[in-house]
Design brief:
The protein is α+β, with helices and mostly antiparallel strands and 210 residues long. It has 2 domains: 2-136, Medium-chain alcohol dehydrogenases, catalytic domain (Quinone Oxidoreductase, Chain A, domain 1, Alpha-Beta Complex), CATH 3.90.180.10; 142-209, NAD(P)-binding Rossmann-like Domain (Rossmann fold, 3-Layer(aba) Sandwich), CATH 3.40.50. It has helices at residues 41-47, 52-55, 131-135, 138-150, 173-184, 198-203, and strands spanning 2-5, 16-19, 29-37, 68-76, 88-92, 94-99, 102-107, 114-118, 122-124, 164-168, 188-192, 208-209. The longest helix is centred in the C-terminal third of the chain and has 13 residues, at 138-150.
């Protein structure tokens, strides 16, 4: 199968399209026929050498990029119970590595014809959402949710109905999710964005737009 591969750190031209072996899912994993994937700052940062303590000091230990994924289940590991071949899913293809206090999500190759993901990192794709829309959500939405619900304070940072939330960059990748998630918690949301994006942020549910 075809996949995006990089064997050294650097700018985007270090990434090449190569023929690689089709992956095999682990006992708790799912093999996905990739229909869509999205590029994140996470991919860019790791490609350029961010997180080398975990990913490899001189060259990458993991040579595949791509976290966000959407597609159809090709096969499942023997312990998987929630999905079967043919199901449409989306989520993240990651290995969660941790070295001392540093925690890094390592991409497991969503930029390919097929990719594996843990069962726990996938959900069923709604019928009214395209593969492209689904693939654009996971990392950005997770980041927004963590910032709003956790706030760096664990359970003490939980949003409560009626609280006021200010979202800077409300028209950005994370900001658009932050506005909608904050509203779903019942917060009063103020979004900050450029003038050209005022109507967009208002359409996402912001009570006030600056």
């Amino acid at each position: 199968m075809k996949a995006a591969v990089y064997t050294r750190y650097g700018p985007p031209d270090v990434v090449q399209i190569k023929d690689v072996e089709k992956p095999v899912p682990k006992d708790d994993g799912v093999l996905i026929r990739v229909r869509a994937a999205s590029v994140n700052p996470l991919d860019d940062g790791l490609m350029k050498g961010g997180g080398r303590v975990v990913t490899g000091l001189r060259k990458p230990k993991v040579t595949r990029l791509g976290v966000d994924v959407a597609g159809q289940v090709e096969s499942v590991g023997r312990n998987v119970t929630r999905f079967k071949p043919g199901d449409e899913v989306f989520g993240v293809c990651i290995t969660d590595l941790q070295a001392s206090a540093l925690r890094v999500w390592i991409p497991q190759g969503a930029f390919a014809e097929y990719a594996c993901a843990p069962e726990s990192a996938l959900v069923t794709k709604p019928d009214n959402v395209t593969f492209e829309q689904a693939a654009s959500a996971p990392v950005a939405a997770f980041t927004a949710l963590q910032g709003l619900r956790l706030g760096g304070l664990g359970d003490k940072g939980q949003i409560q109905p009626g609280q006021k939330v200010l979202v800077n960059g409300a028209a950005g990748g994370i900001g658009t999710f932050a506005v909608q998630i904050a509203k779903s918690f019942g917060a009063n949301v103020t979004g900050v964005c450029s003038t050209k994006n005022v109507e967009l942020v208002r359409s996402l549910g912001a009570d006030r737009v600056i």
